[in-house]
Structure formats: structure tokens, C-alpha cells
Amino acid sequence: MSINVLNIRYSRMAFILAVLTVTLFVSSGCYNTKTGEVKVGGAITFDLPVFPKTGSHAVQVFSEMHYSPAYRSQEVPRILPPEGSVPITGAEVKVFDIENLKMMNGQAHSASYDALEAARVYEVNCQVCHGQNMLGDGPITTLSSARGDGSKVYDGAVPVNLVSERVTSLSDGEIFGYITWGGRPGLAAASRGKESTAIMPQFGYLLTEEQRWHLVQYMRDQNR
Ligand code: HEC
Question: In Å, what is the CA distance from 15 to each residue of 25, 50, 62, 130, 155?
Fold first, then answer.
């Protein structure tokens, strides 16, 4: 026990001494940071490890774990899945051809439809623009800007009334396509291989395929 304590004490002293010596050599200018060569009074020369110059610390003396770079999950640099990987749930083939969209339906997802959950998804993602009753009168359309000069926060395209004939006469697949790509302008951009400049977000990147089909179903429910 006492020997151990002594050992620790000695090894700690030796460590401190080593650090002091290195610091002395480095600060007295006889340590070459590139080669690690140390010259003492022209008589003694020996090599020390070359300390890498990183960040704001020219000399990295400590090697404790909490000094080493640590990355949280999802933080860069991320290890991305290899090109062409398919999620275990199956990859969605994103369709932007309107004729193909017209033929699609959400039957594969109808069994898992949950009206309450769909209402929640609508409330979180769509209500701000399309409004509580889907009339295209969401809070964003009336909100005054913080400038206080009577100007509105939003002066873009009017969010479409989703219970109007214009939308109810569409097929499920078309509605799905517009949700996926960000309305008609978003879909038009996608079919031309362009970035969408539409105000409506491209929910194909934000919601799962299933959630988007459930929204179609939810919109239909509102019209019954
Ligand atoms: C930032 C505001 C905004 C949000 C959020 C938004 N939309 Fe839209 N949406 C629009 C606008 C504006 C249009 C009209 C097309 C355009 O000019 O971009 C539109 C168009 C549509 C259309 C096409 C209707 C047509 O006949 O042209 C559908 C369907 C639609 N939205 C559904 C949804 C659903 C479902 C959500 C939620 C998942 C949603 N939108 C979220 C603003 C929004």
C-alpha cells in the first residue's frame, strides 16, 4: 500500500519533471518544433517527439480523453451510408410525372391510417399556412410583421384552399405529388430537374411517404 503510494508519488514527480524539462527546452528556444531536435549548450543534442501544431495550441502536451476531439451523434463529420443504400423500410421512388402520379393511390398505407395522428401532422406542418379548416387562411396570412409599420409577415402566394373544388377534384396521387414536391410550382420544378422556389416546403424531405398518404386521406375526410 505504502509502496504503491510512494510509486505514484515518484512517477508523478517524474512526470512533472519531464514536463518542466520539455517546457524549459521549448521556451529557451533550443527545441526545434519541426524536427524535435533539442540542443543544450551546444554539447548535448537529443530528440524529443515532434508536437503537432493544432488549433490555437501550438504544443499538445496533454493526451487526456476530454482534450481529444469528440463528435456527437449527427455532428459532422458524419459517416454517410454508401451511395445507393436502401433503408430497411424500403426506398421510396419519388414520382414527379403527373400522369404517373394520377395513377397512384395510398392503399398500401390505408390500414395504418390514424385520423388523430394525421390531424396532428397537419396541425404541425400545414395549419400555419392552410389554416385550421383548410381554407387557406392560416395564421401566417394575417400576421403583422414586427416592424410595426402595418406590413405583413407574409406576402407570398396565397396558400390554396384545400377544401375547394380546385383541390377536391384532384386524384389522390396528384394531391400526394403536390404535398411531396411543394405544390404545383414545386412539382413543376422537380419535373424539370430544378430546385423548387415555391413557398410551400417539399414535404417529401420532411415527412415519410406514409405520413403524406395519410394527409391525403385526412384531407378527403374533411370534405365528407
Ligand atoms: C409555408 C406555407 C405552406 C405550408 C407550410 C404548406 N403549404 Fe401547401 N401550399 C402553400 C402555397 C402557397 C400553395 C400554392 C402553391 C404555390 O404557389 O406554391 C400550396 C399548395 C398546396 C397544394 C396544391 C393545391 C393546388 O391545387 O394547387 C396542396 C395539396 C397543399 N398545399 C397541401 C399542403 C399540406 C398537406 C401541407 C402540410 C403537409 C402544406 N400544404 C403545407 C403553402 C404552404
Answer: 15, 18, 12, 68, 68
* CA nearest ligand 1 atom 13, residue: 159
- 106 and 178: one domain? yes
Q: For the purposes of burial, counting CB atoms within 10 Å of the CB of 219, is it exposed (0-12), middle (13-18) or buried (19 or more)?
A: buried
Dump pLDDT digits (tens) for 171-196: 999 999 999 999 999 999 999 999 99
CB of 216 closer than 6 angstroms to any ligand 1 atom: no
Closest residue by Cα to atom 8, ligand 1, is 200
101 lines ligand 1 (CB under 6 A): no
Residue 179: half-sphere exposure toward Cβ, Cα within 13 Å: 28
Q: Is 198 in the pocket of ligand 1 (CB under 6 A)?
A: yes
**128 Cβ inside 6 Å of ligand 1:** yes
Range of the domain at 192: 98-222
134 lines ligand 1 (CB under 6 A): no
Which of 19-23, 52-56, 155-159 is predicted least confidently?
Answer: 52-56
Closest atom, ligand 1, to C-alpha of 215: 35
139 and 213: one domain?
yes
136-150 in b/e burial notation, b at 16+ Cβ within 10 A? Answer: bbbebbeeeeeeeee
Task: Please check whether residues 56 and 103 belong to one and the same domain.
Answer: no
39: enclosing H helix or E strand: strand 37-40
Q: Are residues 199 and 131 in the same domain?
A: yes
